[in-house]
Amino acid sequence: MRKPFISGNWKMVGDSQSSVALAKAVAEGSAGIAGERVDVAVIPPFVYLQAVAKAVSSSAIAVGAQDVYFEAKGAFTGEISPAMLKDVGCTYALCGHSERRHVIGESDELVGKKVTAAINGGLLPILCVGELLAERDAGKMEQVVERHLRTGLAGLDAEKMSAVTIAYEPVWAIGTGRTATPQQAQEVHQFVRGLLAKMYSKDLAQETRILYGGSVKPDNARELMAQADVDGLLVGGASLKADDFLKIIQASV
Ligand code: PEP
Q1: Dihedral of CA 38/54/164/152: which sign?
Q2: pLDDT at residue 213, rounded to an integer
């Protein structure tokens, strides 16, 4: 059985005080179910990772980074290595979030390198895949998701792949208030699981958690989670309010 996994991407929002307060509120409000019935991760900006990791250290809340670089060390000004993220208490790292792909301009190949480096550095990558609205309207959703998946997982054997969580995030639903319907989410999640079965094995596909992300709110979380292949949620805006995020966590169990 795949344990539900709820993660909150705080994006480039907050300050040191509000980040620690939010982390503590999530840890307190989810005590008793986090770690037991649902895995929970918070994903703050890099500069608040250490303070947030400390604030949740006595809870079951895990901490993730919003990005990671693929080199271990050296002259890569502004970048952060997997070892540095581990050092400050990270368990997870987002790779290929749509804002990195479409605002910062990361290529599919770069995302693939980051996934591999994260695993080799002992982190658990969350590989984000998902199409633009124009791509969906042009009937290219499957083509884009398959390309993101194949290049994101390039070169990974089954053992390494078992460290990966997939997040399906249709770009047209991120931060827009326009959520994919539960049926639309299920359709793509089933497609992703089918691809994983072809690329690896049926067993591995069944074990892999596939999260949905895109305008998840307390009032749509339960219906999304009720879909057979939706194993969790990657939440942006609503994860910045402790009450909303806690309601989403509750809705997943
Ligand atoms: C995200 O940041 O991954 C996300 C899904 O954002 P939002 O929930 O705000 O759409």
Answers
A1: positive
A2: 97
